[in-house]
Design goal:
Two copies of one chain form a homodimer.
Chain A lengths: L21 E4 L2 E5 L10 E4 L2 H9 L6 H18 L6 H16 L6 H19 L4 H38 L4 E6 L14 H10 L3 E7 L6 H12 L3 E5 L4 H8 L3 E4 L3 E3 L4 E4 L2 H10 L4 E4 L5 E2 L16 H4 E2 L2 E2 L6 E2 L4 E4 L6 E4 L2 E3 L5
Parallel strand pairs in A: 4-5, 4-7, 5-6, 7-10, 8-11, 10-16
Antiparallel strand pairs in A: 1-2, 2-3, 8-9, 9-15, 12-13, 16-17
Helix pairs in contact in A: 1-2, 2-3, 2-4, 2-5, 3-4, 4-5, 5-6
Chain lengths: 362, 362
């Protein structure tokens, strides 16, 4: 089954009225400020790249694909800001310098570099044609829109495949209980998310859903973001602490656990937010199928297995500081890995924009 | 092996200088204020039962056995406070009324009622003998000391049995990695704890320990209390988020997971702090032996299995309010069970004051 649509008119979409996480107008980039969620739904109108960099740095926009979309529009802002006086090699050099600066805001965010480099290449080809500044800006704007639109389609395609899969698992049942970890949703992408796209598409297909969202310590993306966007879309969502997942898996027996991914090796081993590995073991123990939803761009076939994926450690204060209150005494250590690796054998399948796949990937 | 000592001189003990969680002097009860941990080590000197009730209510003292010890001294305070003018039936009635009031501060804390009733029975028997107020007070003080001392011995005995078990598991190794959940330590008892008694006794037996402590959401007893008391005792402790346990079990392969228990059924099913069940599954998956340390009083043989243990749900704000910051939007639900039940088949054994046992219990 191929669900790449020529038009998006019949593709799964976010419910009407769902806010755009990244949007563009002639005034600049509009971002839903994720640092203010879930308490406030505030939008940032950003008309210069310095403000955009600051917004990316403080996680007002987060999630690799969403950062990529925002950064693509950032290159338009850069092209606007490069002094009119420059031209030729000097213009190119100055634009490159500013693009590199944007990339360095979050050096480990693969999509940030990918999106900026893609837009930069468009600029270079325009420079080669010696076009006007207006033409350059239009070409860059068009490329950024293309990146956003591709991301939207990719998410919708994942959602469609995931919803089909879920309906197969349900064998005619019209309601489903799902579980997820962290935030692999609309807030993390230019579209309807990766793992959460399955939920939005299933809802649109007429299923009644109940979702358990792990709060996802230490940064609480599940509590703050996943529950916000699902509830905003009218999906019944219940937040639990990560350590309650085993009880919920036993007592509520979800139809599916679905999570996103940061990086997938050729053998299917998957790096994702810390806690994913444990959740996969618990799902297996309770006979609940565990799926990963991720676009092709997340598969890194240069890695044979998860053993080659480096695990970033984050700072102590994420665990020891409870919004200003000391939670761990200074003479105790803290271990704070950002990710873990779930071995392929715990994963029932990979929901991608081209269908549900199983490893090995080639 | 029986390790009930006639004197405590050769029993495992907390390291010298470790603070008393509950102590008594002629001035009254001294409590280590656990609400101030881990930031501050503050003691409360309490000379009236109203203040003691307030301290129990706000969790300045917590953990069933520690509450029991504090409440036993509370009955001494009550006996001091009952008006001198009362005698006979009127005196008994007034003391009973005040004892009932103390019990009702935390109605689900079994040890609170048990300790108050035990002291009350002493008072009744003294009333029957028509003794002086001074004699009554001395008898009550003596009973409270006996309760504290019994708790201390029970903990030491558990520690000794647990340390012997750990040494068997280590097969000659002199260092061990352990993992625990929540706080089943000195802070929860009148002695050296239940699960953590194994660590203190092992340290005293010359083993070098490294302990991973789950932070234990939502109330963070692991981060705040377990890490505080282990570090205070010079034991190397690392706090992790609950969702990191699977990674640590895989990568560090602890020699043992040991936790406390709130209630144990005749078949060995064990209710304990939420997250214990998931941790037991993860330990099993990684071939790490999972032990429960609990005194005889925790075994409830009127319950055939864990299915009969009611699971208390606690309030939403424990999860949705992050020390004053909204962590879950109002239109999302929260599920907050306080406990879970670990089936006996996941538990390698029960470390009690009389040795390491296996179910069924009779």
């Amino acid at each position: 089954m191929d669900v790449y649509w020529d038009s998006m008119s019949n593709a799964p979409q976010l419910p009407a009225g769902f806010p755009a996480v990244v949007a563009w107008s002639s005034a600049g980039v509009r971002l839903l400020d994720q640092t203010r969620l879930p308490a406030d739904e505030i939008y940032l109108d950003i008309n210069n790249v310095a403000d955009l960099e600051a917004a990316i740095l403080r996680l007002s926009v987060r999630g690799a694909p969403a950062i990529g979309c925002a950064a693509a529009f950032g290159v338009v802002l850069i092209a606007r800001e490069v002094p009119e006086s420059l031209s030729g090699e000097a213009l190119k050099k100055e634009l490159d310098r500013r693009c590199d600066h944007l990339i360095e805001v979050r050096p480990t965010a693969v999509n940030l570099k990918w999106a900026v480099d893609r837009c930069r290449a468009v600029a270079h080809s325009q420079f080669a044609k010696n076009v006007s500044r207006t033409t350059l800006l239009l070409a860059l704007e068009s490329e950024a829109h293309a990146i956003l639109e591709e991301d939207r389609r990719m998410c919708s395609a994942m959602g469609a495949h995931g919803a089909t899969l879920l309906q197969q698992l349900l064998k005619g049942k019209k309601s489903a209980t799902l579980m997820t970890h962290c935030n692999a949703g609309a807030l993390a992408t230019g579209g309807m998310g990766t793992a959460l796209s399955v939920m939005y598409a299933s809802q649109q297909a007429g299923l009644t859903l109940h979702v358990f969202a792990d709060e996802t310590r230490p940064l609480l993306q599940g509590a703050r973001l996943t529950s916000w966007e699902l509830a905003r879309a009218g999906i019944d969502v219940t937040v639990i602490c990560d350590n309650m997942a085993a009880s919920v898996l036993r007592d509520r027996h979800p139809d599916m656990v679905v999570v996103g991914a940061d990086r997938i090796a050729a053998n299917g081993d998957t790096a994702n937010k810390i806690g994913t590995y444990g959740l996969a073991i618990l799902a297996k123990h309770h006979g609940v199928p565990f799926y990963v939803a991720a676009p092709y761009s997340t598969f890194d076939l240069t890695l044979k297995s998860g053993a080659e994926i480096p695990i970033e450690e984050r700072k102590r204060s994420e665990i020891s500081d409870q919004n200003g209150r000391l939670a761990v005494p200074d003479n105790a250590k803290v271990f704070n890995p950002a990710f873990d690796v779930t071995p392929a054998e715990l994963i029932a399948g990979f929901i991608t924009e081209r269908g549900v796949l199983k490893p090995p990937f080639a």
